[in-house]
Structure to design on (349 residues):
């Protein structure tokens, strides 16, 4: 075997090791995000102790006076919450080692598929919830709801917690099922629905002199969903407007470096900041509305204000997954890996 062959083999091994390390890093970000969301649910919805409270209880820094009393079994539950991170990241490491010959673009494509699934499910959720909640609100206002469901259920549907648990959540689960079988993203249809919802307000107000709070709530509900859910998809399609006037003149390698650094220093940290600041406690801007099933002040509007707070979490998670995919694609360009996707034919201006 010649020295040249040995050098090529060494470069290949080094390239494989660096590629595996990057895949572990990128996929671990997604795994940590999943563990964070699961732990957030366990801590604030199921009253598990939480990792922060566990460390405080264990008195790791000698602050005996600050130690908080824990109920029996809480240390075990808190330890399981820590273990969740270890298990998910360990699964990522095992997966990467098992698929050591896989290129970066394959994982990038899989991550884009995950982001697309999240926003497909979110699209169907807001579509179904918006329609169903509008029908319920209309029937309540006009006094027809008790005719269809009875007085007792009519009263219960006037409670945000009941409507959220027994109407919205089942529709979200049904939307996840629909998203599993569909492969199209309905943002064009959602944009049309926003226009239709606004148009029916105009027609009802100026022709029939009829307007109710739920009609405006529906427009805001769909409008917020359109912009927040479509962000990850727009990033995939290179549709975001770039304010960097220098980027267009960069070489392909320069663009790859710009995207890599941008993902690491701007994109991914921003998503983590949104999640941590919005879900760090019970009174934060995402958790508080979700926990209390917060609604607007108008009693006969849509009961979806708490879901609109959750839009921020969907935005952060879908963008994080897509930024991770974007990172792998950019590094693949720097490494010269084959299979670079073609740019869209009609990119957004």
């Amino acid at each position: 075997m010649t020295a040249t062959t040995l050098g090529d083999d060494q470069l290949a091994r080094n390239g494989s090791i660096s590629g595996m390390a990057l895949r572990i890093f990128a996929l671990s970000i997604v795994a940590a995000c999943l563990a964070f969301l699961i732990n957030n649910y366990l801590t604030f919805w199921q009253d598990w102790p939480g990792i922060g409270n566990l460390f405080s209880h264990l008195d790791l820094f000698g602050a005996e006076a600050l130690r908080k009393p824990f109920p029996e079994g809480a240390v075990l539950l808190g330890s399981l919450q820590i273990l969740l991170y270890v298990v998910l990241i360990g699964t990522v490491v095992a997966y990467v080692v098992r698929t050591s010959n896989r290129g970066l673009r394959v994982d990038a494509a899989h991550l884009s598929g995950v982001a697309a699934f999240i926003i497909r499910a979110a699209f169907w959720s807001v579509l179904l919830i918006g329609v169903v909640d509008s029908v319920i609100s209309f029937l309540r206002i006009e006094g027809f709801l008790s005719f269809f469901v009875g007085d007792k259920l009519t009263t219960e549907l006037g409670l945000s917690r009941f409507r959220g648990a027994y109407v919205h959540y089942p529709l979200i689960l049904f939307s996840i099922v629909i998203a599993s079988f569909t492969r199209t993203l309905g943002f064009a249809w959602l944009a049309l629905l926003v226009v239709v919802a606004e148009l029916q307000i105009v027609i009802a107000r100026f022709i029939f002199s009829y307007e109710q709070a739920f009609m405006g709530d529906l427009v805001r509900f769909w409008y917020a969903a359109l912009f927040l859910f479509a962000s990850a998809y727009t990033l995939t399609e290179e549709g975001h407007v770039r304010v960097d006037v220098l980027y267009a003149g960069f070489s392909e390698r320069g663009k790859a470096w710009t995207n890599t650094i941008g993902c690491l220093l701007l994109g991914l940290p921003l998503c983590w900041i949104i999640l941590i600041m919005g879900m760090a406690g019970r009174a934060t801007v995402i958790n508080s509305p979700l926990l209390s099933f917060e609604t607007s002040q108008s009693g006969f509007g849509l009961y979806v204000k708490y879901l609109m707070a959750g839009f921020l979490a969907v935005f952060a998670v879908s963008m994080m997954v897509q930024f991770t995919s974007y990172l792998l694609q950019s590094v693949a360009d720097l490494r010269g890996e084959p299979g670079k996707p073609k740019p869209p034919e009609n990119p957004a201006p």
Q: What stands out?
A: The CA atoms of residues 143 and 274 lie 41 Å apart. The chain has a mean pLDDT of 84. The first helix runs from residue 3 to 44.
